[in-house]
User: Fold this.
Amino acid sequence: MSMSSRRARLVCAVTTAALVMLGIAHAAQTSSSPQAASAPRTSTPPPTPKGPSLGVAVSAAEIAAMDVSIGPDGAGLPPGSGTPKQGAEVYATKCLACHGPEGANGINDRLVGGQGTLTSAAPVKTIGSYWPYATTVFDYVRRAMPYPAPHSLSDPEAYAVTAYLLHLNGIIGADDVMDATSLPKVKMPNRGGFSSAIQPKR
Amino acid sequence: MPGTTGSGSSRTPLEFLEGMITPNSLHFERHHSGVPDIPPAEHRLVIHGLVRRPLTFDLETLTRYPLISRIQFIECSGNSTALYAPQPPQAGAGALHGLLSCAEWTGVPLGTLLDEVGVHRDGKWLLAEGADAAAMSRSIPMDKALDDVMIAIYQNGERLRPENGYPMRLVVPGWEGNTNVKWLRRLKITADPLMAKDETSKYTDLLPNGTALQFTFPMAVKSVITSPSGGLQMQGAGLYQISGIAWSSAGRIRRVEVSADGGKSWAPAALSAPVLPKALTRFRMAWRWNGGPAVLMSRAIDETGAIQPARDALLGTRGAAYRYHYHAIQSWAVAASGEVRNVYV
Assistant:
C-alpha cells in the first residue's frame, strides 16, 4: 500500500469518526447503499426522505380546523346554507360601509355590474362580470372579510352574503339557496373568459 | 397606493441606491391586509393535501435543516403600472419602478420538505397561504416548487422583518411578487389550482378581446437607469456615470445596451459582477453630457436572448385594460437645464 492511499484512508476514517461524534445521520447514504439496492422488491414502500425528517405529524382534525380553501369543484365547502335575502341583512351591517349599497359606489372594490364591459376601453371587473368561479366568492368572503374582522362570519352568513352578491349580479334567483351542493353548480357569466398561461406537466 | 387601509405598499428608492442588494429597511412592501404580529413560537407551517405524511414545521425546526442562500430579486407584477398611462407620469425611478428589490435569501429548499411529506403523483399544484388577515393565497405549479422555491427565514443575513414575512415566507425566484407568500402558514398539495381570489379577480391579464390570461407568473426581462433618472438634477455639462439595474426571471442578464440619443444609437454597458440568475444586475457606463437635451434609455437582453421591448411594442398587443407585467424600455429626458423627466419615446 502506498503512502498516499494510506493517508487517504486515514483522512476518510477521521472524517467518518468526526461525523459520528457530531451525531450526523446520513439517511441519503443509507438508502443508496448496495444492500438497499439489492433488497428484493416485494412492494414499493414510500422512499425514505433525504432530509433530516424533523416534521411533526399533524392530525386530520387539526388540518380540518385550518384548511379554509375551497376548490372550484366545491371541495372543502362546509355544511350550512344561505339565501340572498339573508345575505342582504348581513351585507347591510358588515359590508355596505366599504362596498356601497348593492355592491357598487363604495370606497372599495365594486362587486356588482360591469357585465359586457370587458372589451371596452374602461372594463369594470366585478364578481358578475369577471370572476370565473362562485366558490372563490365564498372562499374569499369567509377567509378575509369583513375587513375589520376577517374570518368572523359564520358559514351560513358566508353562504348568505355569497348568495346576495350572486343575486345582485343577476346570476341566481331571489330565493335560490346556496350550499355545498348548489354553489359549485352556479355558472358564472365569465367562466369561459380565462386561459392559463402555463400548463404544468402531467 | 390607494386602497383599503393596511393593504398598501411602499417602494424601494431605486434612484438613491447602488449595487445589487437592497437594504432590508428599504425592501419594497406590498400587503393585502396589513402586517401581522406573529409570536414565532406559536407559528406553524403545515404541509398537507395530496401527501403521504401531513407534517408541521416550526421556525426552530426549520433552522435545523441544511440551509441554502441565494440572491434573488422580487418584483411585484403591478410594478411600473403607472407607465401604461397615456401621458408619462412625472416621478422618480423608485416611485415608478420601486416595487422591486433584491436580497440574499437564506432558507430551506421547499423540495426538501415536499420530499419529507411525500407528494402523491397527482399533486401537481400547491396552494400557499399566509397568516395575514387576508390569509393571502396563491396556487403554484409543482414543477416550480421543486425547481428553485425556498422557504426563507433570513434576509440579507438577519431574520426576516415582520413586513417581509417573519417568521417565514416563500421565495419563488423570478415570479410575480405576490406568489412569494409572506407569513407562510400552509401549503396544500392539490391536483389543480384552487382558483383563489388573487389568481382570478386580481393578478390576471385582461386582453383586448375581453378574455384574460391566468397564471402569468414570470417577470420578463427589464432594466431601468437609476441615475440619472426622473426628479434628479444634473450638475452641469461634463462627465457622469450612468448606472442602472437589469433583471429577468429567465436567468442571467447577458447584455445591457444604453442609448443617450433616444434610441438612435446603442452601446453595451459594463455589467458589474456577480451576474446571477434571477437577481438584479448592476450596469454602468461613463457618459460625457454636452449640456444639451438628451434622452437616456437602457435595453436588457437575458441569457435566453429575450430583449426588453419598446413601450409601443409592449402596448401594441395588450390593449387598454392590461395592468400588470409592464417591462418596456424606460426613457429619461435630460433638459439643457439639467432637469430629468420621464418621457415616452
In short: Residues 93 and 146 of chain A are 10 Å apart (CA to CA). Chain A touches chain B through 52 residues (CB under 8 Å). Residues 67-193 of chain A form a domain with the Cytochrome Bc1 Complex; Chain D, domain 2 fold (CATH 1.10.760.10).
